[in-house]
């Protein structure tokens, strides 16, 4: 199946709404393949669900967005507290050979909270959907994301890699998942939110079965409290797009869920997708923890 990565990101505009969703799981501890680490300087790569979401398991469908937070520690500072650093980022195969160059970025600023540690969300570089995209042509298998950070004040650098897994290209599921504060998905939301807010979860369904130019996917959303008890009835809906001039049913199907955070506490948002036209009714599920706080 041939799909355009830009079309995937474009499909992530908010098109339909109901109540809840997403992926979550604890990320594996990053594997240090650092060969040129100098004193003091270190970097940690933390895969996340969306630009500001929680840690996630580093398993992706080709065409998905690689979101992460970078933790850079041990940077030298000028007398005015300013740090000056840059980093390069790349997708590599398991042997360390380059697959995709994800570019570089430069930073010079004074951390407002002091100290010599900074955190960078890849949304800063990749727009509202987050970080770089794993190429659609990427064969399934084990890969690594490599980041090299340079401290420009003392000419030091450090390299860090974490393993990721890319699933087969025809894997049914959701990509580009993220929480947002606006229907257009331009304002990413975190998972620690103020009570009384309405937030949305955007994603795109990919690799759905198509028969007679139509697809059919059931989406079920639910919410649990921290004890695992459901706090509201699961809500299901079925999307059944048909091919026309404006709809490519074989491409990513952009959709979303909206939910109102009406009371404080710790909750888990859950989402299940079922490919109703597939022979075995392919099913995937995702979850995301959220903390709702009072003023």
Describe, in short, the structure shown.
This protein is mainly beta and 295 residues long. It has 2 helices and 16 strands.
Describe this structure in words.
The protein is mostly beta strands and 295 residues long. The chain folds into 2 domains: 24-167, Immunoglobulin-like, CATH 2.60.40.3880; 173-293, Immunoglobulin-like, CATH 2.60.40.3880. 3% of the residues lie in helices and 44% in strands. It has helices at 5-10, 123-126, and strands at residues 42-47, 59-61, 68-73, 83-93, 98-109, 118-121, 141-151, 156-167, 173-180, 192-194, 198-206, 217-225, 235-239, 253-260, 265-275, 283-293. The strands form 4 sheets. The protein has a 5-stranded mixed β-sheet, with no helix packed on it. Strands 10-16-15-12-13 form a 5-stranded mixed β-sheet, with no helix packed on it. It has a 3-stranded antiparallel β-sheet with strand order 1-3-6. β15 (265-275) and β16 (283-293) form a beta hairpin. It starts with a helix and ends with a strand. Residues 5-38 have low confidence and may be disordered.
